[in-house]
Amino acid sequence: MTELPLSGIKVIDFTGVQAGPACTQMLAWYGADVLKVERPGGGDVTRKQLRDIPDVDALYFTMLNSNKRSLAIDTKSPEGLEVMEKLIRDADVLVENFAPGALDRMGLSWETLQKWNPRLIFGSVKGFNDDSTWNDLKVYENVAQCAGGAASTTGFWDGPPTVSGAALGDSNTGMHLLIGILTALIQRDKTGKGQKVSASMQDAVLNLCRVKLRDQQRLEAVGYLEEYPQYPHGEFGDTVPRGGNAGGGGQPGWVLKCKGWETDPNAYIYFTIQEQNWVRTAEAIGHPEWAEDPAYNTAKARQDKIFEIFGEIEKWLADKTKYEAVDILRKWEVPCAPVMSMKELANDPSLRKSGSIVEVDQKGRGSFLTVGSPVKFSAFQPEIKGAPLLGEHTDEVLAGLGYDADQIEDFHRKKIVVGS
Ligand code: CAO
Predict the structure, then answer these.
(1) d(C-alpha 412, C-alpha 420), whole Å
(2) Is 13 in the pocket of ligand 1 (CB under 6 A)?
(3) Least buried of 73, 155, 229, 374, by fewest C-beta within 10 Å?
């Protein structure tokens, strides 16, 4: 088997919930030895959250912690802290996403970590960055979406701010941290030194909302945003409004009803009117006369009747399922896609073929579906395995650090560790 790119990299995964675990899971997929350090009393909270089978680790946990090992140890006990010191002295990377100040309170400040291991890369996720006036806050997904600009710009203009179903605050921040950690590993090859890599959830959401920051400046310069549904008939205030399903770039689009929409909440496609493809688009939707008509043949001419045009396209879509519509439109090079439900995605043969959705065997559960690597490599294919049981590797890790059987038994007796 090909050696995985990150093999030999030792990662201490002191993370919980989603943001941190998403980052370390990917390090594990790509070959790092990722050791999850968890509280003896139950471990990562997601083990118990939203369980679908009594007494079995929840999917929330198994889908974020595959390919890792687990050490369950009370790191607040003197013995636990000593174990952490030994692990840190020998590690390449430590990742954490506890509440602000928690690591310092445990005796694991950045200064201490550096003293123990100057080559260590210390990855940290917080809700807000150090310079924020909110840097003491505990933060979950939707808090970050609201603070980072996603909520104020998502939804419809006559409804409240709306959060996305995508984990823009959690997994997305984990991916940002991952980029930072890999960058720091490359820099360490050059300098021999580790460093602290911080990613805040607000910053990571904002980074994905950059087009809205673009729009804010355009709005302030000209007073309107021509690609938003509010233009030209509605009103603009002084901040970027919610634009419904409008395309975020220069190509207008909308979610359009297909056959069956009355009963199927996902019988829709996203349809883009691509400027350079107007002639073919007009033919595709049964209005070839619009192709050369000056009232329709430029984006500017179409702007004030864009919803009329979308209405005409919906008439054309009325007798076609979303799949049939896309099959026709792809021949006319219309950028479009069916609105996919989670059920359809879970059963999609091409996502299974590509390994983007994989079936994994999990101890105590049997097989379950999870996401595979969304990045594909020509030189290797990551193998997605199960997640560890709480403390599954406790004894093996302690023995590896030089503790003898009596000492390990003593740890168990004092309830400093759990597992086998
Ligand atoms: N042994 C002993 N104690 C441990 C331990 C271990 N192995 N692992 C954790 N703890 C302790 C922590 O030190 C902390 O103790 P103190 O509060 O006494 O310092 C305590 O457990 C709880 O830590 P926590 O960070 O998990 O606290 P929480 O559940 O109240 O908050 C969260 C959770 C997510 C809101 C908070 O961690 C946070 O804001 N993190 C940063 C932002 C973030 O990553 N959010 C993502 C959430 S979803 O992906």
Answers:
(1) 9
(2) no
(3) 374
Whether residue 199 has its Cβ less than 6 Å from ligand 1: no
pLDDT in tens, the chain (420 residues): 689 999 999 999 999 999 999 999 999 999 999 999 999 999 999 999 999 999 999 999 999 999 999 999 999 999 999 999 999 999 999 999 999 999 999 999 999 999 999 999 999 999 999 999 999 999 999 999 999 999 999 999 999 999 999 999 999 999 999 999 999 999 999 999 999 999 999 999 999 999 999 999 999 999 999 999 999 888 999 999 999 999 877 799 999 999 999 999 999 999 999 999 999 999 999 999 999 999 999 999 999 999 999 999 999 999 999 999 999 999 999 999 999 999 999 999 999 999 999 999 999 999 999 999 999 999 999 999 999 999 999 999 999 999 999 999 999 999 999 997
Residue among 98, 168, 203, 418 to mutate when testing ligand 1 (max atoms within 8 A of CB): 98
Report whether 276 belongs to an annotated binding site.
Answer: yes
- Flag whether 390 is in a domain: yes
Residues with a catalytic annotation lie at: 170
Q: What is the pTM of this model?
A: 0.97
Given a contact cutoff of 8 angstroms between Cβ atoms, the answer to whether 32 and 103 are in contact is: no
Residue burial 238-255, b: 16+ Cβ < 10 Å; e: rest: eebbbbbebbeeeebbbe
The domain that holds 323 is classified in CATH as 3.30.1540.10
Task: List strand residue ranges (DSSP E) for 181-323, in order.
Answer: 195-200, 253-257, 268-272
Assign residue 120 a region: left if phi > 0, alpha if psi is -120 to 50, beta otherwise? beta
Instruction: Look at ligand 1, atom 23, and give the residue with the nearest C-alpha.
Output: 98
Residue 225 lies in a domain: no
Ligand 1 mean position, distance from CA 21 (Å): 13
Domain, as residue range, for 128? 10-207+347-414
**Are the C-beta atoms of 96 and 123 separated by less than 8 Å?**
yes
Length of the chain: 420
Ligand-binding annotation for 105, yes or no, is yes
Q: Is residue 234 included in any domain, yes or no?
A: no
Take residue 375 and report the two structure tokens written for it: 């990045």
Q: Of 280, 311, 334, which closes a domain?
A: 334
3-state secondary structure of 147: helix
Determine whether the annotation assigns residue 249 to a binding site: yes
